[in-house]
UniProtKB/TrEMBL annotation:
This is 2-aminoethylphosphonate--pyruvate transaminase. It catalyses: (2-aminoethyl)phosphonate + pyruvate = phosphonoacetaldehyde + L-alanine. Homodimer. Substrate binds at R339. Involved in phosphonate degradation. It comes from Cohnella phaseoli.
Length: 372
């Protein structure tokens, strides 16, 4: 299938033609065929999360990823509860904002975008504040591409006897996560990230024993995760309100393709190969990555604006777009950066072609051929 351009962004991302073709039929939302697909998706998500069906459940929620985060936070934390948000980027800040808008008692442990979250600091905050019932944090902070130490943070929170909510939006499916073994209470992701579906819904993998205690907690009707779960269970895959049928069908196909690729571990290997190739070739072209390799995820990479050539992001963006690649602007207030994603139906050869285009931009700029 012809592409207008390759998306090198952290979602929506480039999908296979077979995922797109899966949307070419119309489905009835309450018919058994369709509900069967929903149930199959819920089962496959639990396998992907390495979570046991008796202990965990998967709930699908209409809307983009943020809707899933808002549904999870707004339903998980009871009226008398208190949320601690760990923040080292824009998506952590968004969770803090959600808690504020919903009127949830909360506090924030602020970090910096170039440093991973620190388990010792989290432990100290939890030891000093017995009111905190829940802790929320982002696994891969897409703002920079930094990979927070998931296992360390989850262990600290669990050792302190609190519930943990993980925004694994940009990592789930692209990095293996042992949700069951770690005892994660809520893990949130969406259709259009590493599972490589199209945008339209998010999902929450939740511990049954924990979610079952959340009836009546929600501060919203549409984003009531408990109610959504209850309906999906009782009516075998029925969504409470109109579900994004075509998106669901495409997602089912995307899950099958993830399994065909060899699962999250194999996909992670491909993404990591893309990412290493990207950094190597970008460095050859004179660009420098914002993060050191130790904290860098395979998902998305932040690059500093180059100093060796006259450079403006907009010109660079359109130069690459004309050649079939769409990249991402930066999201940091204190550093001039841009981002390139390495997830989706994107392969090493694509990254090599992208970097050839980047090199020709650099050559033109050096020769004065690019007006800034
Ligand atoms: C993409 C993303 C989200 C959700 O963003 P939406 O625009 O609502 O889909 C949340 N957290 C992280 C870390 C993300 O990468």
């Amino acid at each position: 299938m012809d592409r207008n351009y390759l998306l090198l962004t952290p979602g929506p991302l480039s999908t296979t033609s077979t995922v797109k073709e899966a949307m070419m039929r119309d489905w009835c939302t309450w018919d058994d065929d369709y509900k069967g697909i929903v149930q199959d998706i819920r089962g496959r998500l639990l396998s992907l999360a390495q979570a046991d069906v008796d202990a965990y459940t998967a709930v699908l929620v209409q809307g983009s990823g943020t809707f899933g985060v808002e549904a999870a936070i707004g339903t998980a934390v009871p009226k008398e509860g208190k949320l601690l948000v760990l923040e080292n980027g824009a998506y952590g800040q968004r969770m803090e904002q959600i808690a504020g808008v919903l009127g949830i008692q909360h506090c924030t442990l602020n970090g910096t975008p170039d440093r991973v979250l620190d388990g010792e600091r989290v432990k100290a905050v939890l030891e000093g504040d017995a009111d905190i019932t829940h802790v929320a944090f982002v696994h891969c902070e897409t703002t920079t591409g930094i990979l927070n130490p998931l296992e360390e943070i989850v262990r600290v929170v669990k050792d302190q006897g609190r519930k943990v909510i993980v925004d694994a939006m940009s990592s789930f499916g692209g990095i293996p996560i042992a949700v069951g073994e770690l005892g994660i209470d809520y893990l949130i992701s969406s259709a259009n990230k590493c599972i490589q579906g199209v945008p339209g819904f998010s999902f929450v993998v939740a511990k049954r024993s924990v979610l079952s205690e959340c009836k009546g907690n929600a501060r919203s009707l549409a984003l009531d995760l408990y109610d959504q779960w209850e309906t999906m269970e009782r009516d075998s895959g029925k969504w409470r309100f109109t579900s994004p049928t075509h998106v669901v069908r495409a997602f089912h196909q995307a899950l099958i393709e993830l399994e065909q690729e060899g699962g999250a571990q194999r996909r992670c290997t491909r993404y990591a190969d893309n990412q290493r190739t990207l950094v190597r070739l970008m460095e050859e072209a004179g660009f420098e990555a914002y993060l050191p390799v130790e904290t860098q995820s395979p998902i998305i990479t932040t690059f500093k604006y180059p100093l060796h050539i006259p450079f403006a992001f907009v010109g660079f963006y359109y130069f690459l777009k004309e050649r079939g690649f769409v990249i991402y602007p930066g999201k940091l207030s204190d550093a001039e950066v841009f981002r390139i994603g390495t997830i989706g139906d994107v392969h090493k050869g694509d990254i090599e072609r992208l970097c050839e285009a980047v090199s020709s931009y650099v050559t033109s700029a050096q020769q004065g051929g690019i007006a800034i």
